[in-house]
Amino acid sequence: HATPPHHATPPHHATPPHEGTPAGGRPGARDEAGAVVLWLLGLCVVLLFVGGLSLDLWRAFSDRRALAGAVDAAAVAGASGIDAEVLRATGQVVLDPPVAEGLAAANLSAQTDLGAVTGVEITATPTVITVTATGTVDLTLTRVLLDPAPLTIRVTATAGPHRSP
Questions:
Q1: CA 88, CA 12: separation in Å to the nearest integer?
Q2: pLDDT tens profile 93-107
Q3: Contact, 136 vs 118, CB < 8 A?
């Protein structure tokens, strides 16, 4: 009985990995990993910028809120500067402008949260007192990235005298 001839198969030789790919990896995998690293680095820079911008804007809103509160309080204090002589003579509630301006200025000078103020303007008439304050907010992280000028804040409050019910 004759045996069929045995065909010997050549031994399986692994082909050497392609140049620039990790052993057993697919072609281009190392290049894609480099691109991912660059994208992540760019994303980190963008997140740093957005985070710095949000912190600076939060600080500007906070300083504006504090300045608005101080200006409101000064206007209300100035509105209590009633001209007593006119009230006694005519029964009208009107302001004594120099007294109202002095009360508003004294109230502002007693405020402790006015670090951002660069200028104050107080004007009074017999019917109304207006207090305007201007300030600046120095930017922190945004200044490092963009080198912008400080933000300017301007707040105005107006109050007038009125009779109590």
A1: 115
A2: 999 999 999 999 999
A3: yes
Please tell me the distance from the alpha carbon of residue 91 to that of residue 84, in angstroms, as a whole number.
9
Task: Check whether 8 has a pLDDT greater than 90.
Answer: no
Q: Output the pLDDT for position 50.
A: 84
Q: How many residues does the chain have?
A: 165
Tell me the chain's radius of gyration from C-alpha atoms. Answer: 37
Longest CA span, the chain: 144
57-95 per-position pLDDT tens digit: 888 898 899 999 999 999 999 999 999 999 999 989 999
Helices (H), the chain: 29-78, 84-90, 97-110, 141-146
Query: Quick check: 160 and 68 in contact, CB under 8 A?
Result: no
The upper half-sphere exposure of residue 75, i.e. CA atoms within 13 Å in the direction of its Cβ, equals 23
Which tokens hold the place of 23?
Answer: 């052993």
Is pLDDT at 136 greater than 70 in this prediction?
A: yes
CA distances from residue 24 to 4, 17, 73, 120 in whole angstroms, order as listed: 38, 7, 74, 73
Task: Give the helix/strand (H/E) hosting 155.
Answer: strand 151-159
- How many angstroms separate the CA atoms of 40 and 43, rounded? 5
